[in-house]
Design goal:
The complex is a heterotrimer of chains A (153), B (103) and C (421). By secondary structure, chain A is α+β, with helices and mostly antiparallel strands. Chain A is built from 4 helices and 9 strands, in the order ααααβββββββββ. In chain C, the strands form 3 sheets. A 3-stranded mixed sheet of chain C has the order 6-5-7. Chain C has a two-stranded antiparallel sheet with strand order 1-2. In chain C, strands 3-4 form a two-stranded antiparallel sheet. In chain C, 48% of the residues are buried. Classes of the chains: A alpha+beta (153), B mainly beta (103), C mainly alpha (421).
Chain lengths: 153, 103, 421
């Protein structure tokens, strides 16, 4: 537990350090390309097909944590953990989103197959996580209900 | 110059937990502004995490990642003092990068 | 560096020190310089239209209803004369009780059997109402609930013109079909059993709270020279020490303006009088400075001074304003936030917190809105949500309510910026 004073000092300290830490790293060496056809596909299956993912197996070894009810669809916290050996990719799909493919992560050895992020959800629907292990894809999904607001219609 | 990235890398058990928060609008390209004009898409497409210079995570993102993207991950082999780099680039060619030391 | 330059520099430093108040004279601490003229917010105030994540503010002018400054709502009304039995189109009635576009519909506050999803619970469960009440009773209750119960906080849907006679008849026809208790697939569907959301995100962690980026801007603005050549830091040389408790002691009554100033308005008026910086309330720099300064008092117990006659009067006004019914929906602050009424209940899928505990985290990051709100913007959205015209952020009435709300939070620890949904 950090002391209150240290917490206080951290607030606003970033600006004072601005300019010290910049590192220009080229991003061209990525192992996979950002594929427009996949990231604009309107259908979950089509998006996966664009990435060359035809089939996947439902698996309990893909752990997907997401809230049962999310207070707003703008920021839905998601956590994916793979218990499968040699996990080399994690993908996130929001099945009801206008653009279902949310993210593709390519994992190199050294990183645990465990990732948390925050995603948008257009409406109540399933979030699907896919994991690549030994050349095959495994998946699990969870329904997330997006709450409906009160008076402010 | 790294103004857009907050990173923390802390030892947790035998590895390090890395948390990243990026200041970015992640515009979907469908939202309309006050005058009814479509706000052009503006979102991070690629993000890379490096450990002592070696890429450990390469991310490809779409518009479904929330505004101000957040990421938490674990590096099993990281040790105190190791360097963790974070770099992103968006669809407009803007980019930013920073590096922190594992604590 | 040559001697002439040195001398010039020394003179400049002395000059800058001379421009700062020492804070004490023979009569005790002198009041902080404030620009007393003009408004701290844009004039005329123009309602927000659309936010970063696309949420739109309604643009209706509700001038024929009360707001926090005017009294204009129609009085408790008599029922319209209706010939014959009260009957209507139940199918259309079902649409209306679920309609979110006109104040939320019945389901916002009532369980309606198995109709619709995520019902709210500030009002009674109506699942069996068709077996319990007559159409005439229901019509009267919807049209003007205050005839039956003057203390009712249900909106007077007819008197306030939200629904027409025909529409209320249709709603009654639908409600008369409700004769079966609600069955919920899980406790999470049931507002009486759904657990209250608990905010556990570590809001003071800069890798969690996007407001961290705005706090950075506040720290930078504090150190940036204004039009008169000086920065805040030139007088407040050790901000961590100078503002160690200040943020937890705001808002405060300002006799020179006879109103309560929160951190945000204080920043606007103080900067205008000192550095010449122009930071209107709810502008990015104003929020950034407010977060930066308020966060310096994080962990301090909230404690405001209400002993002076002016502050006592402001507190009394604020407490009275919290009971004022405003807007087409005719809700007071307490109607929605007092746990005896709507507070700590579900308004459909939205949990409305009870008083207190509504304040110690402002300015706060709103994940659903993608921006930081000061407490005054929160008040403005409350007003618009109940269909009342909002006030400018520097309105005296908002200051009074902020003071009243802050006294209810006395002793709680400041934790700024917060994160809320």
């Amino acid at each position: 537990m950090l002391s209150q004073r240290r917490r206080v000092l951290r607030w606003g300290a970033g600006a004072l350090l601005a300019g010290v830490a910049g590192l220009a790293m080229p991003l061209r060496l990525l192992a996979a390309e950002w594929k427009k056809s996949a990231f604009t596909a309107r259908d979950p299956k089509a998006a996966l097909t664009e990435l060359g993912i035809g089939n996947y197996t439902e698996s309990r070894e893909v752990l997907l944590k997401a809230p049962d009810i999310a207070e707003n669809g703008a920021v839905v916290p998601i956590e994916v953990t793979s218990l499968l050996p040699n996990t080399s990719e994690i993908l996130i799909v929001g099945e009801k989103n206008p653009v279902p493919l949310v993210a593709r992560f390519i994992i190199n050895p050294g990183m645990a197959p465990e990732i948390s992020l925050r995603m948008k959800m257009a409406e109540t629907g399933k979030v699907r996580a896919l994991v690549k292990s030994g050349g095959n894809y495994y998946s699990s999904a969870k329904e997330v209900k997006i709450t409906i607001g009160g008076c402010g219609g | 110059m790294a103004d857009s990235i907050k990173v923390r890398a802390q030892m947790q058990g035998s590895g390090a937990e890395v948390r990243v928060l990026i200041n970015h609008p992640m515009e979907t390209g469908v939202r309309k502004d006050e005058k009814g004009a479509v706000v052009p898409a503006h979102f991070i497409q690629t993000l890379r995490i490096t450990h002592n210079g070696n890429p450990v995570l390469e991310s490809l993102w779409g518009v479904g990642i929330s505004q101000n993207p957040y990421l938490r991950l674990k590096l099993a082999s990281a040790k105190p003092g190791d360097k963790i780099g974070v770099a992103w680039e968006d669809n407009l060619g803007k980019k930013d990068a920073t590096e922190v030391v594992v604590q | 560096m040559n001697k002439a330059l040195w001398a010039g520099l020394m003179l400049a430093i002395l000059g800058s020190l001379a421009a700062c108040q020492t804070g004490k004279d023979s009569a005790g601490p002198s009041p902080a310089p404030l620009a007393l003229e003009g408004s701290a917010a844009p004039v005329p105030w123009k309602r927000y239209v659309v936010e970063p994540l696309g949420v739109r503010w309604p643009q209706t002018d509700w001038k024929s209803f009360n707001n926090l400054v005017q009294t204009a709502s129609p009085p408790v009304g008599a029922l319209p004369k209706i010939d014959g039995p009260i009957a209507g189109n139940a199918e259309n009635g079902k649409k209306l009780v679920l309609d979110r576009s006109r104040g939320g519909g019945c389901i916002t506050c009532h369980i309606l059997g198995n109709t619709g999803s995520q019902p709210g619970n500030p009002g009674p469960d109506l699942s069996m109402i068709g077996a319990q009440r007559t159409p005439e009773w229901l019509f009267a209750q919807i049209w003007e609930p205050r005839l039956t119960n003057p203390q009712s906080f249900m909106p007077p849907w007819g008197t306030h013109g939200v629904f027409s006679v025909e529409e209320v008849r249709d709603m009654v026809a639908f409600l008369m079909t409700l004769k079966t208790p609600a069955e919920f697939k899980s406790d999470k569907e049931n507002p009486n059993k759904r657990p209250a959301p608990v905010e556990t995100r570590p809001n003071l962690d800069p890798t969690e709270n996007p407001a961290a980026f705005i706090a950075d801007k506040g720290a930078a603005a504090f150190r940036a020279a204004g039009p008169k050549g000086q920065a805040c830091i030139d007088c407040h040389r050790d901000p961590a020490q100078a503002f160690a408790v200040w943020g937890a002691q705001m808002p405060s009554y300002e006799p020179r303006l006879d109103k309560v100033l929160g951190v945000e308005e204080f920043v606007t008026r103080h900067a205008r009088a000192t550095t010449g910086g122009e930071f209107p309330m709810q502008s990015e720099t104003n929020l950034a400075l407010a977060i930066y300064l308020r966060a310096l008092a994080n962990g301090q117990p909230i404690r405001v001074d209400t002993r002076s006659p002016g502050a006592t009067a402001a507190l009394a006004r604020g407490q009275a304003l919290m009971d004022k019914k405003v807007g087409q929906l005719n809700f007071s602050c307490r109607d929605c936030h007092d746990p005896e009424r709507g507070g700590n209940h579900w308004f459909r899928g939205q949990y409305v917190s009870g008083l207190p505990n509504l304040l110690g985290h402002f300015p706060t990051w709103r994940t659903a809105r993608g921006e930081v709100w000061d407490i005054r913007k929160r008040f403005q959205w409350c007003n618009v949500s109940v269909r009342a015209n909002e006030l400018p952020p520097d309105a005296r009435e908002y200051g009074d309510i902020e003071l009243a709300l802050t006294t209810m939070n006395a002793g709680r620890k400041l934790s700024v910026p917060g994160i809320r949904h």
